[in-house]
Design goal:
This protein is α+β, with helices and mostly antiparallel strands. About 35% of the residues lie in helices and about 20% in strands. α5 crosses α8. The two termini are about 25 Å apart.
Length: about 375
C-alpha cells in the first residue's frame, strides 16, 4: 500500500467542505493532487497498473454522505449530462407536443450502440418533428456496437448521423428548436438560446450558479460542462428521486422512468448501463460518460454516487462502480453475482490462463 499511496498522493480522506465555485488545479504542477487509488491490477503478484480517481456519494438534500478522494474535483460530465440537458425540452412539454412516448424520452438520455432499434427510434423522432437526418449536427462515427465492443464493422457498412451515439439527444435539441421557433443551423453553439436554457437548467439541477459551470465542447459538438464531482452526484440523486423533488419532480420522474423502462435504448447490447439498470430492477438510474465518468442513482434511497477515473480506463471504472455499490449496501446476493463480470477480478489471457487480478483498493469514508 505504500507504493499505491505514493503514486496517488495518499488521498484517502473524505473532504466534506462545500464550495460554491469549482476550484481549478493544474495536474502537471500539483503532484499531491487528491485522487485516491481505486483499482489495482497485478501480474505475478506485483502491481502492474493502478487506476486512481475519486468517488462522491450524495443524497437528494445535497449532503455528501460518503466518498474517497477529492469530491470537489472539477469534472467534465460528458454523457452523464444528457438527462439534465433534456430538462428544457421536457419542462416545455416537448414530448407531449410531438407525441413522444417513454421510448423517445429514453433516447434523449442515450449513448446508444447504433443498433437497428436505436436508429429506427431516432428516425421516428425526426419524422414527428418534420426534419431530415442532416439537420442533426452530431456528426458521424462508426456505431458503438462495433467500436465500443472492439468488433470490426462489416465491409461496406453505411452509417449516418442517426448511428451517432448522441443522435437521440440531438433529436431532442432539434425538436425543442422546432417547437419554439429557434434556428436550427447553429443549435450546438454555446450562445444559442437552446444552449442558454440548457446551461440554466443544468445549474439549477446541481445547485450551482450558471457561471460556476466550466464550458467545454463534447465529442458530439454540443456544449458540455465541468462541475465538482459531488455536484454531479447531487444532480443524479435529485434525478433518481423523481416526483419527490419539490422543484423539478415531474420532469425528473418522466426522465428516470423512461431510462429504467428502456435501458436497452439508453445504451445497447453488451453495455454497462443496460446491465446495471436491469440488475437494479428499476431502482438504479445509471449513466456512463466518456473518459472515466459514471453516475448511478437509487430511486429508493434518494442517493447517487459519481465516479471519475483519472486515466479514463473503462474496466477500472466499472469495477469501481460495482465495488461502490457493494460498500454502500446496495447489492443483494443475486445482484452481486449478476455484476461479477463487471468487477472482472480475474485477468485472463487469450488462452484462458489466469495472469493476474483486478482488485479494489479503496474504502469509502463517511463524514
Amino acid at each position: 500500500m505504500e507504493f499505491i499511496a505514493a503514486l496517488c498522493g495518499n488521498a484517502q480522506s473524505l473532504r466534506v467542505k462545500q464550495v460554491t465555485k469549482p476550484r481549478q488545479r493544474d495536474l502537471l504542477h500539483n503532484p499531491a493532487m487528491e485522487f485516491a487509488p481505486l483499482i489495482q491490477l497485478t501480474r505475478g503478484g506485483l502491481t502492474e497498473n493502478l487506476h486512481c480517481g475519486a468517488v462522491a456519494v450524495v443524497n437528494r438534500h445535497g449532503q455528501l454522505v460518503a466518498g474517497v478522494g477529492d469530491a470537489h474535483w472539477p469534472t467534465f460530465t460528458r454523457s452523464t449530462l444528457k438527462a439534465l440537458q433534456a430538462l428544457p425540452f421536457v419542462q416545455g412539454g416537448g414530448p407531449q407536443h410531438f407525441g413522444f412516448g417513454s421510448a423517445e424520452v429514453a433516447m434523449l438520455c442515450a449513448s446508444h450502440n447504433g443498433e437497428d432499434l436505436h436508429v429506427q427510434t431516432v428516425q421516428g423522432m425526426l419524422d414527428r418533428v418534420g426534419v431530415g437526418v442532416r439537420t442533426l449536427r452530431c456528426g458521424c462515427h462508426v456505431p458503438l456496437r462495433f467500436s465500443y465492443l472492439d468488433q470490426a464493422p462489416p465491409e461496406g457498412l453505411q452509417f449516418d448521423e442517426r448511428h451517432n451515439n448522441c443522435s437521440g439527444k440531438h433529436a431532442g435539441f432539434v425538436a425543442h428548436c422546432v417547437q419554439h421557433g429557434l434556428p436550427l443551423e447553429n443549435y450546438t453553439e454555446a450562445d444559442h438560446p437552446l444552449q442558454h436554457s440548457i446551461r440554466q437548467a443544468v445549474a439549477r439541477a446541481v445547485g450551482l450558479e450558471v457561471d460556476d459551470l466550466k464550458l467545454g465542447i463534447d465529442g458530439c459538438s454540443a456544449p458540455n460542462y465541468a462541475m465538482p464531482l459531488w455536484r454531479l452526484a447531487y444532480g443524479y440523486a435529485r434525478l433518481a428521486s423523481g416526483a419527490q423533488d419539490s422543484e423539478l419532480g415531474a420532469s425528473f420522474a418522466q426522465l428516470t422512468d423512461a431510462m429504467t423502462q428502456h435501458p436497452d435504448l439508453v445504451s445497447g447490447s453488451g453495455r454497462n448501463d443496460l446491465d446495471f439498470m436491469r440488475v437494479g430492477r428499476g431502482d438504479w438510474v445509471s449513466k456512463v460518460g466518456a473518459d472515466g465518468v459514471q453516475v448511478v442513482g437509487s430511486k429508493e434511497r434518494g442517493e447517487a454516487f459519481a465516479i471519475k477515473i483519472l486515466d479514463g480506463n473503462k474496466p477500472a471504472l466499472f469495477a469501481a462502480s460495482v465495488e461502490t455499490m457493494d460498500q454502500l449496501g446496495w447489492l443483494d446476493p443475486a445482484q452481486r453475482e449478476a455484476l461479477r463480470p463487471w468487477r472482472a477480478q480475474t485477468l485472463l489471457n487469450v488462452r484462458g490462463l489466469t495472469v493476474g487480478e483486478r482488485l479494489p483498493v479503496f474504502k469509502l469514508q463517511t463524514p
